[in-house]
TrEMBL record:
Enzyme Commission (EC) number: 2.1.1.360
Other noteworthy facts: In contrast to other lysine histone methyltransferases, it does not contain a SET domain, suggesting the existence of another mechanism for methylation of lysine residues of histones.
Origin species: Phytophthora rubi
Main subcellular location of this protein, as a coarse class: nucleus
InterPro entries recorded: DOT1_dom, SAM-dependent_MTases_sf
Protein name: Histone-lysine N-methyltransferase, H3 lysine-79 specific
Gene Ontology molecular function: histone H3K79 trimethyltransferase activity
Classification of source organism: Eukaryota, Sar, Stramenopiles, Oomycota, Peronosporomycetes
GO terms of biological process kind: methylation
Gene Ontology CC annotations of this record: nucleus
The family this protein is said to belong to: Belongs to the class I-like SAM-binding methyltransferase superfamily. DOT1 family.
Compartment(s): Nucleus
Keywords linked to the UniProt accession: Chromatin regulator, Methyltransferase, Nucleus, S-adenosyl-L-methionine, Transferase
Domain DOT1: from-to ranges: 1-140
Catalysed conversion reaction: L-lysyl(79)-[histone H3] + 3 S-adenosyl-L-methionine = N(6),N(6),N(6)-trimethyl-L-lysyl(79)-[histone H3] + 3 S-adenosyl-L-homocysteine + 3 H(+)
Length: 140
């Protein structure tokens, strides 16, 4: 239902804050026309494992190559992000800040986030000038 309501088009950049192993990222990459699919995940090991699984399926499902994950703490995102992990080993990795700032659609299942993270999410949304749709599990 979210996918249909989001109306993701070929020029959209989808951002999943708290992307975990990338289930939502893979679904969006496979079922929409999104230009790029980006995750933010604080747990580097979790993000790396998810991207390993996604990359291992990319030869069969090339749309998965649109996925990148920024490993960072959303509370400190303005200070710079640590690493970008891409499903495409041949891609020239964009700077974490440019991946995030280009987002046009944002999703987060943020019910497990602490209040400080929810406030950081709100601040991030205010800075994303291209953002046209935000889907959160909690109210902002």
């Amino acid at each position: 239902m979210l996918i249909e309501e989001a109306d993701i088009q070929v020029n959209d950049v989808f951002l999943d804050a708290g992307s975990g192993v990338g289930n939502v990222l893979a679904q969006i990459a496979l079922q929409t026309q999104a230009f790029r699919v980006v995750g933010i995940e604080i747990q580097r090991d979790l993000a790396a494992r998810g991207m390993e699984l996604i990359a291992s399926r990319a030869s069969r499902f090339p749309h998965l190559l649109k996925i990148s994950v920024v490993t960072a703490d959303i509370r400190n995102i303005a200070e710079g992000s640590d690493t970008v992990i891409s499903a495409d080993p041949d891609s020239k990795l964009a700077q974490p800040s440019s991946l995030i700032s280009s987002a046009t659609r944002l999703f987060s299942h943020d019910t497990v986030f602490g209040e400080d993270v929810v406030l950081a999410m709100r601040a991030l949304c205010m800075k994303l000038h291209h953002l046209r749709l935000v889907a959160l599990a909690t109210r902002v």
